[in-house]
Amino acid sequence: MLSEEDDVDIHALKRQGMTISEIARRTDHDRKTIRAYLARQAAPGQRKRATSDLFDKFIAYVTARLTEDPHLWAVTLLDELRPLGFTGSYPTLTRQVRDRGLRPTCTACAHVTKRPNAIIEHPPGEETQFDWVELPDAPIGWVFPTKRAYVLVGSLAHSGVWRAVISPSMDQPHLLAAMTVLLGLLGGVTKTWRFDRMSTVLKAGTSDLTPMFAAFSKHHAVSVVACRPRSGNRKGVVEKNNHTA
What we know:
By secondary structure, the protein is an alpha/beta fold. Helices cover 42% and strands 13% of the residues. The protein has a 5-stranded mixed sheet with strand order 3-2-1-4-5.
């Protein structure tokens, strides 16, 4: 790559009657480079990316996938492109998607972000948020009864610190067992636990705790809060950590 100053120099030398070989020797650059800049096939200060042309054959697939799901994670897209022959790195993929404008704007999200939002304060020791993440195709070595595994994620709302426990089921006994482990990993209990409207936490169609979970929360001397329907963003701390998990 030649700088603006180098480009000016080689054009001046060319006007003085020097050959490309003479200019190359004088400026200590390759003859092909000199010829490309004199022919305006290369722009000063801009390095041509060797990976750009290699990415062309993947544009149609990437465009189709991102049109189908504008929120598709780049790491998932990278995993899908590997069998198709893509050998670039994760930063290369994200740069290509960004520079080429391949990810469309999500109209649903654009509408949501225009709504007024309130900042929710989370004092230290106030709230722990819990949520399940489903993992398909559990390794055979785990000896789980089904091909699925479940991860209970617990996040401290104030700091965002989180821990997770893998479980073969989301039923109530496994929920309580996973929570017991999580409380130890998180260093204790907060004043409040926040959940989705899980049937293992609330009686179906009501806001009342199930008897077993009521006894469990009473034992730990905590209050239990369930998010209102369609208000899952109220536990955004654990939702964010679910993605990481």
